[in-house]
Sequence to fold (399 residues):
Amino acid sequence: MPRALRPSRGLAAGWLALLGALLVAVPLLLRLLPAGLGTLFLIEFLSDGRVPALTTLTAPPHEETVRLASGPATLYRPLAPGRRPGLVLLHGLVPEGKDDPRLVWAAGLLARGGFAVLVPDLPGLRASRLRPADAEVVIRAVETLAAEPGVRADRTALVGISVGAGPALLAAADPRIADRIGLVATLGGYADARELVRYFTTGHYGFGEVRGRRVLDPELVRAFLRLNLDLIPDEEDRQALGALLEGRPLPHRLGPEGRAVAALLANRDPARVDALLEALPAAIRELLAELSPVSRLHRIRARLLLLHGRDDPAIPFTESLRLAAAAGPARTRLVLLSLIGHVDPAETSWWGVTAELFRLWGAAYELFRSRPLPRSSRGDDEAEGGTGRWESPGASLSR
Fold:
């Protein structure tokens, strides 16, 4: 899991005591599925596995390899009998892709909670590249998971971590699977690729009345840009910009498109970014628009669960504010947190920690509970062969 999404290492005794109190209530919580499943998942997640609340009470899932056109994916299937809702879990910019240790751990926990979890490799993100083709991989993953025996085909959840939220949201807007998606959850996701460019080139972020600036590691930014030089149409410009990013002198004069890219990379004024983006080659402008899920939210019929750390250094929390505003409150739950990201626990009061834990519990409950889609957001007809409800992963356990 990306560093920005790991629980704070120093979570103090106060909230650990609260988790202990919740553990005492486990027998009652198990009767109140999915609240119990959400609580057990949250206890284990927040304690980074040190309190194995869900692991102790459930069998490990069965793991198998599923073949997609893009490559192998891993399916985590609960051992308990019953038809299970599906969940597709999507990684961010990690070279290990679906085999990232934190992602594997999270997938196993979700499967213990009752989901049939499919984790595909996203080739673009695995290579530190944002590409629309990754959304196609998600679409194929949803279709493949729906065809698996014992998996409910009518309501699938998508969970995107960091920039993995982009392919999740773009896929959920695709008419081929829009009716099958009951929930899209994002952890530290983004709304507008143009705003990511503004953030990574200037350190500035904002939405509405919220403004901020963060000092970014320039080497990390340069490394990401070097991996995406294939977007520059002219070969000589690609080589020259590569030299520039490595701190070497330009080997020759840049062409018009290369100069436009170099001007954007050298700029540190957030107010100039829009004009500099408009000067980029048409192919890059079109790509940025295609990678921006905020323009596709009106096509999504699922509920949205948006979680973001206020101090997330990878993607600013204003991107989730932008997503929530565009989607509207009727089908969106936005949860901003300080427990996720790089936060000094000593600066968080006991009351603040308790309030955040209850907000996190509400998010976990949203993921695990059974909930019908609002009529206003699912269209006139139910998905073919579906019931119009997204069944709780623990439903068969409570029968």
Summary: Confidence is low (pLDDT under 50) at residues 1-32, 342-347, 370-399. The chain has two domains: 3-192+300-398, 213-290. The chain is about 40% helix and 20% strand. Residues 58 and 112 are 6 Å apart (CA to CA).
